[in-house]
Write a structure and sequence with these properties.
alpha+beta, Nucleotidyltransferase, domain 5, 12 helices, 18 strands, 22% strand
Length: 439
């Protein structure tokens, strides 16, 4: 029996909300079981504040374990949506993670990528030296310099954790590869990859005669994307259904001769944005909002806000908004319990209210689909299939809005969480299969 070298390469889908790792097999690719029973893992890191002093770095938990530690009230810092930091000035800054320790935001990304690489190596039993990484069409909208900086930062992080050779592939192109494996004739496909941080569209030629080509540049008619997706939806849900109970959008008390004024909204926007939540807990901001009790016409709203700030419940509220979005997508309604803020406090969100809250963001995403067609110079009638992937394609109003642009196309639903990783794995196999360590 021939001695088949152990593959030394993998593909990584480093997502805003969830991540996955694909490894080659003789007849295709397989996804690594990153957590028991799960091929995808939340892109989340929890720094344990009560870590032994002799450790150079605080203890870290990843994925579902990270989220569980936060929910269970373990003292520490939860970090999510790290991908959104790429291309931002925050990347080189340090942030408090509890226990008198601080870490650089860029090191958070490196640590998570290192963990993914280790899990992949545990499956192969050998070092993984080469990788294909997925990337959005645009890390940063309408800012080419920052977009290049973001790609460079992600590459630097991958090299820092031990990869020696690296290739990028657009995430929606990877999804097209996954779809291509199922088609029997040539098609013009619009891939709609609506994830946690970006909504990306690619117009791609796919087909059985193109499937084994490594260079597919000529098959890509257009790429376009916007930095609006699932975490933005969570933000809108929080602002629409949760934060009004804490005073967002409320008017202060009317004063003689003056109209009532709306309460300052900055604190609420920060509470609704994952990577800014920790900024609301600074002593200066706590003191500022304690002193603003008289600004509130409804004292209970101020009391609720202070409970959130003093008990550091911001990430719990963001998690409740995310779950509400999911519940509406699955069952048309969400009942949001806010007992941690105030006993028996609750809110509701139905499909119509969610659609209204997300209308502006969804309009931008649908406009991006139109722009992709414009860039390619083809009519909507030329598109034969629209392939939907990404966690946010569970929202019916969004999918229906995109599908309406292409009434003659077949709507195809891929694996919401794994299509990109599978396609990246197929691309990695084509790129690396001729070199050392190929399967």
């Amino acid at each position: 029996m021939p001695n088949i070298p152990t593959p030394d390469y993998c593909a990584i889908d480093f997502g805003t909300s969830n991540s996955a790792v694909a490894l080659p097999t003789p007849d295709g690719v397989r996804l690594v079981a990153l957590e028991a029973g799960h091929a995808t893992m939340p892109t989340a890191v929890f720094y344990v504040a009560d870590s032994p002093a002799h450790l150079a770095e605080p203890e870290r938990l990843y994925g579902r374990a990270a989220v569980a530690a936060y929910v269970e009230g373990v003292d520490g810092r939860l970090m999510r949506s790290m991908k959104s930091l790429l291309g931002s000035a925050l990347l080189e800054q340090r942030t408090d993670v509890g226990g008198g320790r601080a870490v650089r935001y860029g090191d958070v990304i490196e640590g998570y990528l290192r963990h993914l690489r280790r899990l992949g190596q545990a499956q192969t039993g050998a070092p993984l030296k080469r990788a294909v990484l997925g990337r959005p069409v645009f890390f940063v909208d309408d800012e080419p310099t920052r977009d290049r900086q973001a790609a460079h930062a992600l590459a630097a992080a991958a090299f820092a954790v031990g990869f020696e050779e690296l290739h990028f592939q657009y995430e929606p192109i990877a999804a097209a590869f996954a779809h291509e494996a199922t088609v029997t004739s040539e098609q013009l496909v619009l891939v709609a990859d609506i994830g946690g941080g970006t909504s990306d569209f690619s117009l791609v030629r796919v087909g059985p005669l193109r499937r084994d080509r490594i260079e597919r540049h000529d098959d890509i008619l257009a790429n376009h994307g916007v930095h609006v997706a699932g975490t933005d939806f969570d933000r809108r849900v929080a602002l629409a259904a949760i934060l009004p109970l804490l005073g967002y959008g409320a008017l202060g008390p009317a004063r003689a001769g003056e109209p009532a004024r709306e309460l300052p909204s900055g604190i609420y926007f920060d509470l609704a944005t994952w990577h800014l939540i920790n900024t609301v807990y600074s002593p200066a901001r706590l003191a500022e909002w304690r002193a603003m009790r008289s600004w509130f016409a409804e004292p209970r709203q101020h009391a609720r806000l202070m409970t959130v700030l003093e008990d550091r419940l911001g990430h719990a509220l963001a998690g409740a908004a995310e779950q509400a979005k999911i519940d509406v997508a699955l069952q048309g309604r969400a009942d949001i319990s806010l007992d941690d803020v105030e006993r028996a406090l609750a809110s509701q969100l139905d499909a119509a209210s969610a659609a209204q809250a997300l209308q502006a963001d969804q309009a931008r995403i649908v406009a991006a689909a139109h722009e992709t067609l414009h860039q390619a110079g083809v009519p909507a009638s030329a598109v034969q299939a629209v392939f939907f992937t990404g966690g946010s394609t569970g929202l019916a109003s969004l999918v229906d809005g995109i599908a309406a642009v292409f009434p003659d196309a077949t709507a195809v639903r891929g694996d919401r969480f794994a299509s990109v990783a599978q396609g990246l794995g197929l691309h990695a196999k084509r790129v690396f299969s001729g070199g050392g360590g190929a399967s």
